[in-house]
């Protein structure tokens, strides 16, 4: 999908199927992460679905998240969860591994990590104990 004749990250990496693969891989790492898994429900099916919709929209694809769930309001939706600097770091580490495993290449890898790092920083709401 191009926006104003500019290739988006979404189209550059291969679209919806690639996002699905990244999300599936990412949550495989989350399930094994002792810092992250307590923040998530036992059944990750709905969480994975929402993440796929969000990342599709976030990286320039169709506005699927908004169509199904309204404005993302990420910070507000994440306030109930204690997101510490360590949780942020672990989340980003899992996402980096998922991007690598799904063969996301440059310049898309760097752009995705930079944008997700800014978002992850914004989600932090709890200091380390």
From TrEMBL:
It comes from the Bacteria. Signal peptide: none annotated. Keywords: Heme, Iron, Metal-binding, Transport. The keyword Ligase does not apply. InterPro entries: GlbO/GLB3-like (IPR044203), Globin-like_sf (IPR009050), Globin/Proto (IPR012292), Hemoglobin_trunc (IPR001486). Coiled coil: none annotated. Belongs to the truncated hemoglobin family. Group II subfamily. This is Globin.
């Amino acid at each position: 999908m191009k926006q104003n004749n500019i290739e988006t990250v979404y189209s550059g990496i291969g679209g919806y199927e690639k996002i699905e693969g990244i999300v599936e891989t990412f949550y495989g790492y989350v399930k094994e992460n002792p810092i992250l898994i307590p923040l998530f429900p036992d059944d990750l099916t709905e969480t994975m679905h929402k993440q796929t919709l969000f990342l599709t929209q976030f990286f320039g694809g169709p506005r699927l998240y908004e169509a199904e769930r309204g404005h993302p309001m990420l910070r507000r939706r994440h306030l109930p969860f204690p997101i510490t600097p360590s949780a942020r770091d672990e989340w980003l580490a899992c996402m980096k591994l998922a991007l690598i495993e799904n063969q996301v290449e440059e310049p898309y890898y760097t752009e995705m990590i930079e944008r997700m790092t800014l978002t992850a920083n914004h989600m932090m709401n709890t200091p380390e104990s």
